[in-house]
């Protein structure tokens, strides 16, 4: 390799193999180099075959690869704002080699070049900004001391906890963000079914703004297709009383249309009309109760409506009318 200014005339026993153009290095671009074989660079450092490294503008303004070097490509700088962060996989350690399996958290505001062998986990991410009605469900990947909360807490692998706002949060490499949750506002006539993942117990939360804890999840109540059809808001309990409902057709209609509109995690409600009665059976306590209208019925987790099969038609036939409310 000949590097000098001016003209050059090859000798009799010389051959020009390749003419190289220098790479211009800036603050935003660096050159990724790989060694073809073991050699000693001009700085006196021994470079092993296959070793990869970066040449930046802090080392030189222009770069011409040596005989035993090849250019892998140009590397653009990675820039983080003060509202961003990233996690680097296999970061380069003090010895200059990637630490395989390790992770490193980089917080903005900062600019840096990714070293050979380093990767960004999930790219550049925005920090979590939580309002007073939001929270994060977090899980520990390994044992560590959580210094974000006061007093400090020693977390064990698999531990789950909720971080509630208002706050800003950047998860460390030992923490996994499972999901982001929002508080659910509920009117006094609205509710949700909540199930504990530890005990399996299901309860109804009614008439308050509620956020699920780390060991809670929404529970979907299973209702027969015929009952869901009878509770449909499109049906009038009194006016549609004479309609005969085919259970098989209602089941097919439920599969096609009702699934998208039905939220089974909300507490089932039914407005009992005037001069009518509804019977509700609790399968856990094995007790039944009758509600007379006008009133609003809110089903508990273990309660179900009692379906009524009434006679109708001329001549009368049994099981012609299906209903939830009995008109008095």
Throw out a few tags for this protein:
mainly beta, 328 residues, 6% helix, four-stranded antiparallel β-sheet, three-stranded antiparallel β-sheet
Note down, in words, how this protein is organized.
It is built from two helices and 30 strands. Helix content is about 5%, strand content about 40%. The mean pLDDT is about 85. The chain is mainly β and about 325 residues long.
Query: Compute the gyration radius: what is it?
Result: 35 Å
Task: Give the overall silhouette.
Answer: elongated
Look at the structure and give the mean pLDDT.
86
The profile of the biggest β sheet is: 4 strands, antiparallel
How many H/I helices?
A: 2
Number of strands: 30
Low-confidence stretches: none
Query: Beta-strand level of the residues, as a percent range?
Result: 35-45%
Helix content: under 10%
The secondary-structure class comes to: mainly beta
Give the termini separation: 104 Å
Tell me briefly what this model is:
Helix content is 6%, strand content 42%. With 328 residues, the chain is mostly beta strands.
Secondary-structure map with pairings?
Elements: E1 23-24, E2 29-35, E3 39-40, E4 46-47, E5 52-55, E6 62-63, E7 69-76, E8 78-80, E9 84-89, E10 103-107, E11 110-112, E12 119-126, E13 128-130, E14 134-140, E15 144-146, E16 153-155, E17 160-164, E18 167-169, E19 175-182, E20 191-196, E21 202-206, E22 216-218, H1 225-230, H2 247-261, E23 269-272, E24 276-282, E25 287-292, E26 295-298, E27 303-305, E28 308-312, E29 317-323, E30 325-327
Antiparallel strand pairs: 1-6, 2-5, 2-7, 3-4, 8-11, 9-10, 9-12, 13-18, 14-17, 14-19, 15-16, 20-21, 20-22, 23-26, 24-25, 24-27, 24-30, 28-29
